[in-house]
Design goal:
Layout (H helix, E strand, L loop, with lengths): L1 H5 L9 H5 L4 H19 L27 E11 L2 E2 L4 E7 L6 E8 L5 E7 L6 E6 L2 E2 L2 E2 L5 E7 L4 E5 L1 H10 L4 E2 L2 E2 L5 H8 L13 H4 L9 H17 L4 H7 L11 H7 L8 H5 L22 E4 L9 E6 L5 E5 L16 E4 L8 E4 L7 E7 L5 E5 L15 E5 L20 E6 L5 E5 L4 E5 L8 E4 L5 E6 L5 E5 L4 E5 L20 E6 L5 E5 L23 E5 L5 E4 L7 E6 L5 E5 L4 E5 L22 E2 L5 E7 L5 E7 L9 E8 L18
């Protein structure tokens, strides 16, 4: 009996006498019935190929099957709702496709009366996996057809796992930009990283919320944990009848009018339209939620955002970020961290963060002349990282910053620039630094109001391309290779050809269009987009400080056409806009220095916008608010469709220590961008 349960009976292993020995007819019949009984019983535990649905209710099995040669190791899972098992659930192991909406079911099995199921993934799939669960019964009630649960596996093919409401929310938000009608597909590294991002939200082995979500700097410090629990509780309410699931699905309709059919699909749509009907979604949080704590009132938008602060001793005024080809986050620091902040000295470290790996490791690299890096950071075509050393310093700092160099690093963290950096140019208080696709490095040199080029990345060939660019702040390259620079003091944008010649009509604009412009970014249609702070004169000389004027400031953005034509837009919660980024749909994301919000506007590719009108706000009048934001400078989009911001200054900046302490990421809200970003964004 034991052999029949756990492995196939191989008659070739019997001796010739045993195989040929005659037996009475009754014994042969009894033996055949016993064999048939245990064969059927064993098959109930073996993963059935897609299309051959298991209808066996509550299979009575004492253990998993032996895994055959056609499979890898075994996944042992439980389907749960409200902590109770779902028996007779239909569980599917799905292989993600190469494009959103493309996926293939590999296995289709049923859960037993304890909610258990076993999955033996076929060998050679080499892709990203996820699980869905539907149907079945829990607590004497059949799950409605609208309730579908999910869990992201990535490449995991063995061990314990749970599929429940929490794993569904985590997978939905993390994988939102790879979903089409609930089917997942996409390119590397974005899709694998999105699968791994779920670890920051949920423990797949237990189905409970992850410690990273429950504890500082997240946890009760921000609204994210209660928001997550509220959504998970709504799914549980849909399963038990405590929520009006039809009303919830209507409230989760996306900005194009697509109404989700299931709870799983809803979790992939909400991040793409978080401010659609926040009150309608909140109304379905059950009176007795399965997950606590929950929100006590409807939010302005249903966003899930996480804070990353490393060990708390690493980030001090992060100015901007860049993503390498693997999707890792590279961060520059304005200042050094220290217990006593009387002496504020320039930051001397470059940080690499892997937010998707267990433990979210942070690696620090030094040397190469890093000295108070400001806003400029970016990769070139050789995967070398370039950094502008602005040189922040306090009054009592004993080391005077150089404020006149660039640093260059390899992906392994080794500096290529000399100990004092590249100082050719001449450079003075450099800010924005970008590479074009030919490997030329362009730097906005704020202190001497110039644009400096390193042709082919060679400092020995340094060329001053433009002069008189009043406090040059940031630089971007458009699809034609033309280079545009913001003049923070001059209230203009300057344009140059790839050969360094001034474009016809340059400089563009005046104080009627621009007001203290800062960041600039390019789209795939030849436009560049400028953040009009309206309030921030950039400090570019020794002894100058950054002033934050009192009162409310709204700001605007300006579209600069390929020929220099200008169009100004406002709204979407813009409050002292600073950094600006373009996503894979060519929509515009803006970091605000005040207001604790990120803004989102329609770009020139109107087909990707809900309203179909360039410049129209997509985020509400308060932006996408998050109480974990401080004063933000940099904003960038990663290959998984996450929006990253730098907490550069504290909300209430102290004179001895104004510097913020980390990064914030909004999950699944933007169209992914290929990394590294060189020139206009490209689709993964």
């Amino acid at each position: 009996v034991s052999l029949c349960r756990w492995r196939r009976i191989d008659t070739t292993s019997l001796s010739a006498a045993e195989a040929s020995s005659p037996r009475p007819r009754w014994a042969r019949r009894a033996g055949g019935l016993v064999f048939l009984f245990f064969l059927i019983k064993g098959l109930a535990w073996i993963a059935i190929p897609a299309g051959a649905r298991s209808e066996a209710p509550e299979p009575a099995v004492s253990g998993p099957p032996r895994v055959g040669h056609a499979s890898n190791r075994l996944l042992v899972g439980h389907v749960e709702v409200g902590g109770e098992p779902v028996r007779g659930a239909r569980v599917q192991l799905v292989l993600a496709g190469r494009k959103a909406g493309q996926a293939r079911v590999l296995l289709d099995v049923g859960s037993d009366r304890r909610g258990r199921f076993f999955l033996a993934a076929p060998r050679g799939h080499r892709g990203q996996l996820y699980v869905t669960a539907s149907q079945g019964r829990t607590g004497g009630r059949r799950l409605p057809g609208t309730v579908v649960l999910a869990a992201a596996l990535g490449r995991r093919t063995s061990g314990q796992m749970v599929v429940n409401e929490a794993t569904t929310v985590a997978a939905g938000f993390s994988l939102a930009q790879f979903a089409g009608h609930g089917r997942i597909g996409g390119a590397e590294p974005g899709l694998p990283n999105a699968m791994r991002m779920t670890r920051n939200l949920v423990n797949l082995r237990t189905g409970r919320t992850a410690a990273f979500l429950r504890t500082a700097p997240n946890g009760t410090s921000t609204q994210t944990w209660p928001t997550f629990n509220s959504l998970a509780s709504i799914i549980g309410g849909c399963a038990t009848g405590r929520s009006d699931c039809g009303a919830f699905l209507r409230a989760a309709t996306d900005a194009w009018g697509h109404r989700p059919r299931t709870t799983w699909e809803a979790m992939t749509l909400i991040p793409q339209n978080p401010a659609g009907d926040p009150g309608g979604i909140f109304a379905q949080v059950p009176a007795r939620p399965a997950y606590r704590p929950v929100l006590h009132q409807a939010p302005a938008d249903w966003v899930l955002a996480l804070q990353f602060v490393g060990n708390g001793h690493e980030f001090s005024g992060p100015g901007n970020v860049a993503f390498d080809e693997h999707g890792a986050v590279w961060v520059i620091n304005n200042a050094q961290w220290a217990k006593k902040w009387k002496n504020v000295c320039p930051g001397l470290g470059l940080f690499k963060v892997d937010p998707f790996a267990p433990g979210r490791p942070v690696e620090q690299y030094t040397g190469g002349g890093i000295n108070g890096a400001g806003f400029g950071v970016g990769f070139d075509p050789d995967n070398h990282l370039w950094i502008g050393n602005f040189g922040f310093s306090g009054k009592r700092c004993t080391t005077e910053p150089t404020s006149n160099s660039l640093s260059e690093f390899r992906l392994d963290g080794k500096p290529l620039s000399p100990p004092r950096g590249y100082r050719q140019g001449p450079l003075s208080w450099p800010q924005g630094v970008v590479s074009d696709r030919d490997g030329n490095i362009w730097t906005a040199s704020c202190g001497n109001s110039t644009l400096v080029e390193y042709p082919d990345g060679d400092p020995r060939q340094a060329t001053v391309v433009g002069t008189g660019i009043g406090r040059a702040f940031d630089v971007a390259v458009n699809t034609e290779g033309n280079v545009f620079v913001t003049a923070n003091q001059g209230n203009q944008v300057w344009g140059f050809t790839p050969d360094g010649e001034a474009m016809s009509g340059s400089p563009f604009g005046d104080a009627s269009i621009f007001s203290d412009p800062l960041g600039i970014a390019s789209d795939r249609l030849g436009n560049t987009w400028v953040s009009n702070s309206g309030a921030i004169p950039s400090p570019c000389k020794s002894g100058e400080g950054l002033q934050t004027p009192p009162g409310t400031h709204h700001g605007s953005i300006v579209q600069v056409g390929p020929d220099g034509t200008l169009t100004k837009y406002a709204g979407a919660g813009l409050t002292i806009p600073w950094g600006i980024a373009v996503d894979g749909d060519d929509t515009i994301w803006v970091a605000n220095f005040t207001g604790q919000r990120v803004s989102h506007l329609c770009g020139a590719r109107v087909a990707t916008c809900p309203t179909g009108v360039a410049g129209d706000p997509i985020s509400p009048s308060g932006g996408y608010a998050f109480d974990g934001l401080q004063r933000n400078t940099g904003v960038q989009i990663d290959p998984s469709g996450n929006v990253w911001l730098t907490n550069n200054w504290k909300k209430i900046p102290l004179q001895v220590n104004p510097f913020g302490r980390g990064l914030v990421v909004y999950l699944g809200m933007a169209a992914p961008v290929r990394a590294p970003l060189i020139g206009p964004p490209q689709l993964p």
